[in-house]
Amino acid sequence: MIIQKSKYTQFIKSEAKRLGFLSCGISKAQFLEEEAPRLENWLNKNRNGEMSYMENHFDKRLNPTLLVDDAKSVVSLLLNYYPEQFQNTDSYKISKYAYGQDYHFVIKEKLKEFLFSIQSTIGEVSGRAFVDSAPVLDKAWAAKSGLGWIGKNSNLLTQKVGSFYFIAELIIDLDLEYDNPTTDHCGTCTACIDACPTEAIVGPHIVDGSKCISYFTIELKENIPQEMKGSFDDWAFGCDVCQDVCPWNKFSKVHNEPLFNPNPELLSMSKKDWREITEETFRVVFKNSPLKRAKFQGIKRNIDFLE
After folding, report:
1. Greater confidence, 40 or 185?
2. 194, 215, 229, 240: most buried, per Cβ within 10 A?
3. Residue positions in the annotated binding site for cob(II)alamin?
């Protein structure tokens, strides 16, 4: 049985590599005891703002066996999105994760293939794939399986590649060998806390979601509060400040996923182009892009607010 477990684990990790994932870690599917009081406290302090969906499925967020019957293992995966080229300096800024196609679709396809491959090779394995669209605490599972540690900006950090990657999971009913968590390497550094334009990092490892630029420019459907005027540092969709200043991101490597390559028009857009963008141009340049989440009207609202 131990030999089987080892063999299956090796197969899963080599398959993750073949599919282009940066790394793969595995942990036992069980209740996340340490995260439960943290999540409860975060929600009680309304740090989710208008993101009421964060209050749903509290138990499922903490217990993977409620998402997949008889779940045994959580396979955590990282997929790099760090770009080779960046936006024009005279531009309203969008988060680097949104340069290419929507990661939900890109990763979902890879995970479908991954699960099919596991079932074809190992046999009857039940499970579900998750990409940031279900009640799963991605970062907690990735940290538990040794893929990195949770930094003071509450992002997962790794010594070799920083933090510019997506996190996804397969939760499966297969017993595997489990990885151990790694150690924290933030030390006394407070670069992310000091640099946050809206002071959303209210303490080490605690981000008040309702103060974050990403929240205002993507999640908030109403008007952006006037008191935030002048503090967005030209971010029109998302924000990368706490990642850009993190010393570990000096080690970021360029991704090798063609679907994450940006539309060349996006890189050359100036502030004037953003201000004059039509709905038709928006549809062409941002076809299958994460920016569609904010919709054309949302992007226009954000740019008007930055004026």
Report:
1. 185
2. 215
3. 61, 132, 153, 156, 167, 214, 239-240
Q: Which two tokens stand for residue 177?
A: 């060998």
Q: What is the pLDDT of residues 190-230, one digit of tens each?
A: 999 999 999 999 999 999 999 999 999 999 999 999 999 99
- Mean pLDDT over 146-169 rounds to 97
CA 82/CA 77 separation, integer angstroms: 16
Write down the pLDDT at residue 45: 81
pLDDT at 238: 98
- Phi and psi at residue 77, to the nearest 5°: -135, 145
> Does the structure show a pLDDT above 80 at 1?
no
Name which of 91, 66, 32 is nearest 266 in CA terms.
Answer: 91
Please check whether residue 37 is in contact with residue 142, taking contact to mean a CB–CB distance below 8 angstroms.
Answer: no
Active site residues: 132
Q: What gap in Å lies between CA 8 and CA 3, rounded to an integer? A: 9
Q: Is 80 exceeded by the pLDDT of residue 2?
A: no
- State the binding site: 61, 132, 153, 156, 167, 186, 189, 192, 196, 212, 214, 221, 239-240, 242, 246
Q: Decide if pLDDT at 12 tops 90.
A: yes
Q: Which of 59-65's residues contact partners 24+ apart within 8 Å by CB, and which partners?
A: 60/135, 61/135, 61/136, 61/137, 62/31, 62/32, 62/35, 62/36, 62/137, 63/30, 63/31, 63/32, 64/29, 64/30, 64/136, 64/171, 65/29, 65/30
Nearest alpha carbon to residue 77 among 46, 101, 103, 58: 103
